[in-house]
Structures are given as C-alpha cells and as structure tokens.
Design goal:
5-stranded mixed beta sheet, 3-stranded antiparallel beta sheet, alpha+beta, about 350 residues, disordered N terminus, 8 strands, rod-shaped
C-alpha cells in the first residue's frame, strides 16, 4: 500500500515539474534573446515563479470555493490573490527585473498589464489542471470498468462450472441406466472434459483448435449416449494448424452446443447439426436442431444462455451477433464472434 502511494506521489511530482518547465519555456519564449547572462536568467525565473505561485495558490486553495458553489467567496479571494500577485510582480519589475522599462506617468497602465498577465497565467494553469484531472478521472473510470468486467466474468465462470457439471453428470446417469458396461469409458472421457473446463475456465484466451477439440469430445460423449436415436453432425473443414493461429475466449460456444442437445429430443426426427466456419478474423457457428416433443420437453432455467449473453457482452461489447430462429420443425442458432490472432 505504501509503495503504491509513493509511486503515485512521484508520478504527481513528475507531472508538476513537466508542467512547470513547459509553462516557463512558453512564458519566456519571447525573452530568450535577452537572456545573455546569469542575472538575466534569474530575473526571468523570478518573474515566472511569481506568476506560477499566485496561479498555484488559486489552484490549490481558492478553486475549492467554486466547486462548493460559494461563488462570491471564490470571486473575492480570486481577485485578492491576483491583485497581490500583480502587485508583487509589478514591484519586482520596477525595482529589479526591468526598472528602465516603465515610465513614471504610465504606472497605472503598467500595473494593469501585470494584472492581466496574472489572470492569463491563472487561467492557463487552471486549464492544464482541469484537463489533467479529467484525464485521470477517465483513466480511473476505465480501470474501474475493467476491474468490474473482470469480476463479473469470474462470477459468470463460477456459475458455469456447476451448470456444466450438472448437465454432464445427467448424461452419464442416463448412460449408466441403459448401458452400464460403457460407463467406465465415459467417465474417463468426462474427466478429460472437466479437466479442460477447470484448467481453462479462468484464462482470458485459449487456442481455437483446443476449444474446437473440446467441442468434439463433448459431441463424442453425446454420440455415445444418444447416437443411435439422434442424427448428430459436426462439420468443421478447417485443419488444426489453421485453427491454432487464432484465439478465442474459452467455454462460450459449448453452451449453445449443450442447449441444442438438451432441448431437441424428438422421437420421430431427432437431429443436431453443427457447422463451424472461419471467415477471415471471425468464427461463424450455426446450429440447427429439432424441436423437442411436448412430452419430452425439459424445464429450462436459462442459466446457460443468460450466462453466454452476459459474457459475450462483457468480452466483445457489440462486436458479435447471436441470432435465434424457430420454424415448425427446427430451431436455428447463429453465432458470430471476432477472433484474435495468436501472438508468437
């Protein structure tokens, strides 16, 4: 904690020094030709420091009254500090910095000149300060939003774990009742799926090839369970090497695949057709599945689908599409999401 505070203070001091130097250069730019000795340099520096100090007094001690909406107090204090700064600058100019520049009959105009310079310096410092504060506030809000999104994603992953395990254990239970001899082999395959889900559930990106292989394993498990009763097709004509070049957020598309099996049970024409295609830097997945018979419909909590929509929104903002269509005999889902090139 103390280390973070120290870093923040150092960063703030660096910013103040940069502002001071930039303001000094800009203020004294027209005087560089006359700074030909150490004394002239010191005169220019004192001239600027007086301007800078009175502007900083306004920034740190007076501007707060404006923020508190005490406008009369703010105006009175501002006028007093600017008059004081102009007076100090005026006296320093007359008696040391540039005594030969002022005529005795033009002192009022000369003081007005110094008063205007103090106003300009104060306005400039305040403009830079407000821009800096605005930039820091935007950065803080962006960081807060990023942290919030990360927390929400972790929460959604935590929701997905039990939801995924629940569906898979249901599948295994169904197989154990009908064909118990096949149960040990399916348990091994199920453990591999769960291992992938646990190991990759909290990473931001995985290889597209690994994710598609995970989908294949899941479909193989479903094929073992219901393959004789359901027409299951997975079409993906891209090679593993081609898909390794891309990254994807993990465990997104499995939710749609799960739903297609869960809500498609049909005694007369049960099918699940999945088509996965790469289109430039996007993944297009189309799922067509039969509609469940009324007697075989399973209650849906919508946890998985709501989880998917929230994660898509957090990860991709509006740069994705999820369309659902239903006809008399078929339910169609089309998902398009952007991919990231794998950095080597």
């Amino acid at each position: 904690m103390m280390n973070n505070i120290t870093i923040s203070i150092r960063k703030r001091w660096r910013q103040e020094i940069i502002i001071f130097c930039a303001m000094y250069v800009l203020t004294m730019l027209h005087e560089w030709l006359f700074i030909n000795s150490l004394e002239n340099f010191l005169k220019g520096l004192v001239f600027f420091v007086i301007l800078y100090v009175q502007a900083q007094i306004h920034r740190f001690f007076i501007f707060r009254y404006y923020l508190l909406k005490k406008y009369f107090t703010y105006f009175a204090y501002s006028l007093g500090v600017i008059l004081a700064g102009a007076s100090v600058l005026f006296i320093a100019n007359i008696y040391w910095i540039q005594p030969d520049f002022f005529e005795q009959d033009e002192l009022a105009i000369s003081f007005l000149y110094h008063f205007v310079i103090c106003i300009i310096s104060t306005a400039t410092i305040m403009a830079l300060s407000l821009m800096q504060s605005y930039a820091l506030e935007v950065q803080r809000r962006n960081m807060n939003q990023i942290l919030l999104n990360e927390m929400n994603l972790k929460f959604l992953h935590a929701q997905l774990n039990p939801h995924f395990f629940f569906n898979m254990l249901n599948n295994l239970y169904g197989v154990s009742l009908t064909e118990p001899d096949r149960t040990p082999g399916l348990i091994i395959k199920l453990s591999e799926l769960m291992r992938y889900q646990i190991e990759n559930g909290n990473v931001p990106k995985v290889s597209l090839a690994d994710e598609i292989n995970f989908i294949r394993n899941y479909i193989d498990l479903e094929r073992e369970r219901i393959g004789k009763r359901c027409d299951i097709q997975l079409i993906c004509n891209h090679s593993a090497d081609e898909m390794k070049a891309w990254q994807i957020s993990p465990l997104l598309i499995i939710i749609l695949v799960e739903n297609s099996f869960k809500h498609s049970q049909n005694l007369s024409d049960w099918f699940v057709h999945i088509h996965i295609e790469l289109r430039h830097d996007k993944l297009l997945m189309t799922i067509e599945n039969s509609l469940a018979d009324e007697k075989l419909k399973k209650p849906s909590t919508q946890v998985g689908l709501n989880n998917l929509k929230q994660r898509l929104s957090f990860i991709y903002n509006s740069d994705y599409s999820l369309n659902e269509e239903q006809s008399e005999s078929m339910y169609k889902t089309v998902l398009t999401i952007p991919l990231q090139k794998l950095l080597i």
